[in-house]
Design brief:
The complex is a heterodimer of chains A (373) and B (374).
Chain A: H1 2-8, H2 12-19, H3 21-48, H4 53-80, H5 84-117, H6 131-138, H7 140-172, H8 177-185, H9 192-203, H10 215-222, H11 238-263, H12 267-275, H13 280-291, H14 293-308, H15 312-317, H16 327-337, H17 341-368
Helix pairs in contact in A: 3-4, 4-5, 5-17, 6-17, 7-8, 7-11, 7-14, 8-11, 11-14, 16-17
Chain B: H1 19-44, H2 48-53, E1 62-71, E2 83-85, E3 88-90, H3 92-97, E4 99-100, E5 106-111, E6 118-127, H4 135-142, E7 145-149, E8 155-159, H5 163-194, H6 200-209, H7 216-228, H8 235-258, H9 263-271, H10 276-287, H11 289-305, H12 308-314, H13 323-333, H14 338-358, H15 360-369
Antiparallel strand pairs in B: 1-6, 2-3, 4-5, 5-6, 7-8
Helix pairs in contact in B: 1-14, 4-14, 5-8, 5-11, 8-11, 8-12, 11-14, 11-15, 13-14
The chains are: A mainly alpha (373), B alpha+beta (374).
C-alpha cells in the first residue's frame, strides 16, 4: 500500500513514463513483488522475534487482516491496468480465485489425498489396498467405537431434536419466552472443553467418607447411594453421561430453529383447527409437525453431522478410556498417538462416507435453484 | 418476534392444565440447564480448600452441623469403655462417627486417634459458607506460585497457571481467523452472484459439496504440507486452516444474501462507470453488514471455542497455545485442581458469552439463514 502512494508522488516526467505500457508492466510485477516481500518479512519477524506478547498479538492481527486486504487491492489494481477485454476476463478470478484456491487446498484435495493415504501402511510407504478398511470394520475397539457413535446418535441427537421441539412449543406459550430461550441457548457460546470442565465438576466423585462436591453424587448419596465415578461406570452406559453434554450444548440450537418455524405457522390455521374441535395434542401432531417438517429435517441433519464428529467432549471427559471412544477420537488416537497414518486416514474416510448422503441432498437442492441451473 | 397477521390476533389458548404446567416444565428445564454453569461460576470465587471440602451449594443458606467448641478430652476418660463427653454418652467407636445428643441439638465427634485426638461439639443450625475470594483468578491468570496453608497447618506450594498469555493467543488466532474468511468469502460471493466467468457453476458446486465435509479429512494432508513448508505452529497456519474450514459456509451464506440484493442498484452504479471493485467496496459490503455480522459471530464462536484445529496445528508449542488447549491440559494433568479449573473455564467463557449476549439477535439470524457446517 505504502509503495503505491510513493509511486504516485513522483514528478510529472516520470509519471508519463509510468503510464507507458512498459512502465505499467514493470509496475504490475514490482508492486505485487514488494507487497509479497513485505508480508513475508513481517511473517519471519513474527515467527522468530521475541517481542512482548501484546505487541506480537497486535502486529499479527494487523498483518493477517491487512495482508489479505492488501493482496486483493494490489491484484485488483494490476488487473485494472490491463485492456478492458482482459480485465473483464481476469477480474472474476481475482474475486473468486482465492476462495476457490483455499477450498481446493484445504478441503477438496485433502479428501483425495486422505483416501490415497488410507490405501497405504502406517508410514505411507507400502501399498496395502483395502487392508486398513478391513481393520476398521473388524477390530474390536473399532466396532466398539461405531457402537458408541450409534449410541450418541440414538440418544444424543434424538434427544436434542425432541427436547428442542418440546421447549420451543412450551416457550411459545409462556410469558417468560425470551429469558427461558436465552438461558437454554447459552451453552452454544461455551466451548466443548469448557463444557467438559463444567460437567466434570457435576460428575466429580469423592470417597464415601468425605462430603461430595459433585452435584450428581451429592444427590445420589443423599438418596442413599454410594458415590460413583459416573463416566467410568458400567459400560456402555457411561457413554450416556457424556451424551448429556451434547444434549446440553445443542438443544438450544434446535430450539431456536423450531421456535422460528412454529412462529411461522399461520395463526388462522391453528385457530381453524381449534374451532373444529381439535385438542392441543392433535394440533401438535397433525398441524405443527407436518408444517415444520422441513425445519425438522434440516435441524436433524445438522445435529446428526455434529454428533458424528463429536471429539472435544470425549477427549476432555475420558480421553476415550472406559469404552467411550468415538470415530473422531479414534481417528486422532490412530493418527497422532499411534502414528498409524494409514488407519487414521481410513477412519477419516469412513467419517466422510457417512456424510455423503447429506452432500448429495445439498447438491440436488442446488440444482433446483434458479441461478445455477 | 411475532409473525402473525394483524387482523387475526393470535389467541393464546392455554394447555388444558393451564399456563402453570407450561411454565412449570419450562422452569424445570431452565434450572437443569443453568445449574451446571452456576456451580462452576460460584466455585470459581470460593476458597481453594472450601471447594474441595464442601459442595458449592453450601454457599446458600442451609442447615448443617457447625462446630461450636473444640477441646482435648480429659485424660481421666475411660477410652475403652462408655464415656460421657459434653453431656453425651458413647464408646470411642461411636464418637468417631459422631454421637447426637438425645434432644437432637448437638453432635459430638472425636477427631484423630484415641490418645491424642480432639473432640468437637457441633450444633445443627442455619449457615452459609460465604467466604468468597478472587484468588483463584489471580492464581490462574498470573501463573505465580502460591503458598497455601492447609487446614492441618502444613504449608504447600501451589503452581498457578498463565492464562493471560493464552488469552492473548486466543485473541490473535480468533480475530484474523474471523475476518479473513469473511473477506475472502465476500469477494467470492460477489463474484458468484454478479460476474459471469467460465467455471462459475463448477466452482460453486464445489462450495456446496464441501459444506458438510468433516474437517478431520483435511488434517492429515494439511499437517504434512505445513511441516514441509515449516508453517506448523504459527498463527498463519491456524488462520488459514480456520479460513479453509469456514469458507464453504461463509461463501454459501454470503452468496445467498448478496445475490438477493436488488439488481437495479448495481446496474445504475455500472452505468455511472463504477468498476466491480468500487461497487463491491462502496455498495455491496455496506449493504451486506447484517449477513457479515451473522457469520462473523458464528465464526468467532467457532474459532474461539475450537480445540481440535488448535491441537493439531499448534501442537505442544506452549507460547502459542490457546485457551481451550490450556484448559484441556489442566483437566488432563491436574483434574482435581478445581480452583484453577473453575476460574480458568470462566476466563475462557467471558468473551464468547459477552459476544453472545450482546449480539444474540445477529447470531440467531445467522443460524436461521443456513446451518450445515463441515
Amino acid at each position: 500500500m505504502q509503495n503505491l502512494v510513493e509511486m504516485e508522488a513522483r514528478p510529472k516526467g516520470v509519471l508519463d513514463w509510468i503510464t507507458s505500457t512498459l512502465g505499467r508492466l514493470l509496475l504490475s510485477v514490482l508492486i505485487p513483488a514488494v507487497t509479497g516481500f513485505v508480508l513475508i518479512m513481517v511473517f519471519r519477524w513474527l515467527r522468530d522475534a521475541n517481542a512482548p506478547k501484546l505487541v506480537t498479538a497486535l502486529v499479527a492481527i494487523l498483518w493477517g487482516v491487512g495482508g489479505v486486504a492488501a493482496l486483493y487491492i494490489v491484484f485488483n489494481w494490476v488487473v485494472e491496468q490491463m485492456s478492458p477485454v482482459w480485465m473483464r476476463r481476469l477480474q472474476p478470478f481475482i474475486f473468486v480465485g482465492p476462495a476457490v484456491a483455499i477450498l481446493f487446498w484445504y478441503l477438496a484435495l485433502p479428501t483425495l489425498r486422505t483416501f490415497w493415504f488410507s490405501l497405504f501402511d502406517r508410514d505411507s510407504q507400502n501399498f496395502v489396498g483395502l487392508q486398513n478398511y478391513v481393520t476398521v470394520f473388524t477390530e474390536r475397539l473399532m466396532l466398539e467405537t461405531f457402537r458408541n457413535n450409534l449410541l450418541w446418535i440414538l440418544f444424543g441427537a434424538t434427544t436434542c431434536v425432541a427436547l428442542g421441539l418440546l421447549i420451543a412449543v412450551l416457550a411459545d406459550r409462556s410469558k417468560f419466552e425470551t429469558i427461558a430461550k436465552s438461558l437454554i441457548f447459552l451453552p452454544m457460546a461455551i466451548s466443548m472443553v469448557g463444557a467438559g470442565v463444567i460437567w466434570n465438576f457435576v460428575y466429580e466423585v469423592k470417597d464415601a467418607a468425605s462430603p461430595q462436591i459433585g452435584l450428581l453424587n451429592a444427590i445420589w448419596v443423599e438418596l442413599g447411594g454410594k458415590p460413583q465415578a459416573w463416566t467410568a461406570l458400567v459400560q456402555p452406559w457411561n457413554n450416556l453421561f457424556l451424551i448429556v453434554i451434547l444434549v446440553w450444548l445443542q438443544t438450544g440450537y434446535a430450539m431456536v430453529l423450531f421456535s422460528a418455524a412454529i412462529k411461522g405457522i399461520p395463526a388462522d390455521l391453528l385457530e381453524a383447527a381449534r374451532v373444529d374441535g381439535a385438542n392441543e395434542v392433535q394440533i401438535f401432531f397433525r398441524i405443527m409437525i407436518p408444517y415444520i417438517m422441513g425445519t425438522i429435517i434440516t435441524v436433524s441433519t445438522t445435529i446428526l453431522i455434529f454428533t458424528l464428529k463429536i471429539f472435544d467432549v470425549v477427549i476432555v471427559m475420558t480421553g476415550g478410556q472406559f469404552g467411550t471412544h468415538v470415530i473422531a477420537t479414534q481417528f486422532y488416537r490412530q493418527y497422532f498417538t499411534n502414528r498409524n497414518a494409514g488407519l487414521g486416514s481410513a477412519i477419516a474416510i469412513v467419517l466422510l462416507i457417512l456424510v455423503i448422503p447429506v452432500m448429495i441432498y445439498n447438491l440436488k437442492q442446488l440444482g433446483r435453484e434458479e441461478g445455477f441451473r | 418476534m411475532s409473525t402473525t397477521t394483524p387482523q387475526v390476533p393470535k389467541r393464546r389458548r392455554p394447555f388444558p392444565l393451564g399456563a402453570v404446567l407450561v411454565n412449570g416444565i419450562l422452569l424445570l428445564i431452565v434450572i437443569c440447564w443453568t445449574i451446571p454453569t452456576l456451580g462452576v461460576l460460584i466455585s470459581s470465587f470460593r476458597d481453594r480448600v472450601d471447594i474441595n471440602s464442601s459442595g458449592w451449594w453450601t454457599v446458600f443458606p442451609h442447615r448443617e452441623w457447625v462446630m461450636t467448641e473444640e477441646f482435648k478430652p480429659g485424660a481421666e476418660l475411660n477410652r475403652d469403655g462408655v464415656m460421657e463427653i459434653a453431656g453425651v454418652q458413647g464408646t470411642f467407636e461411636e464418637f468417631r462417627k459422631g454421637v447426637i445428643s438425645p434432644d437432637g441439638t448437638r453432635k459430638v465427634i472425636w477427631i484423630g486417634n484415641k490418645r491424642l485426638g480432639t473432640v468437637q461439639v457441633q450444633e445443627y443450625r442455619w449457615t452459609a459458607r460465604t467466604k468468597f475470594t478472587l484468588e483463584n483468578y489471580a492464581n490462574v491468570l498470573t501463573g505465580k506460585q502460591y503458598e497455601l496453608v492447609e487446614p492441618d497447618g502444613s504449608k504447600k506450594i501451589v503452581q498457578g497457571d498463565n492464562f493471560v498469555g493464552a488469552f492473548l493467543n486466543s485473541l490473535t488466532v480468533t480475530v484474523p481467523a474471523t475476518v479473513i474468511p469473511i473477506l475472502i468469502a465476500a469477494f467470492a460471493a460477489y463474484g458468484f452472484a454478479w460476474m459471469r466467468f467460465p467455471g462459475r457453476k463448477a466452482f460453486f458446486t464445489m462450495v456446496v459439496a464441501l459444506l458438510v465435509v468433516p474437517l478431520q479429512i483435511a488434517l492429515v494432508p494439511i499437517l504434512r504440507d505445513y511441516v514441509k513448508i515449516q508453517l506448523n505452529g504459527t498463527f498463519l497456519a491456524v488462520w488459514l486452516a480456520h479460513t479453509g474450514f469456514g469458507l464453504p459456509l461463509a461463501t454459501y451464506l454470503l452468496y445467498n444474501y448478496i445475490s438477493n440484493l436488488p439488481r437495479d442498484i448495481l446496474e445504475s452504479a455500472f452505468i455511472d462507470g463504477a468498476s466491480h471493485f468500487t461497487i463491491f467496496l462502496n455498495l455491496i459490503l455496506p449493504l451486506s453488514i447484517p449477513a457479515l455480522a451473522s457469520f462473523a459471530i458464528f465464526q468467532f464462536l467457532w474459532v474461539w471455542n475450537d480445540y481440535l484445529v488448535a491441537l493439531v496445528f499448534i501442537g505442544a508449542k506452549p507460547d502459542v497455545q490457546v485457551l481451550t488447549m490450556r484448559l484441556a491440559e489442566i483437566v488432563g494433568s491436574r483434574g482435581s485442581d478445581w480452583h484453577l479449573l473453575t476460574a480458568g473455564a470462566f476466563i475462557s467463557m467471558i468473551l464468547p458469552l459477552t459476544v453472545f449476549f450482546s449480539l444474540q439477535r445477529y447470531f440467531v439470524r445467522g443460524l436461521l439463514a443456513g446451518s450445515v457446517k463441515g
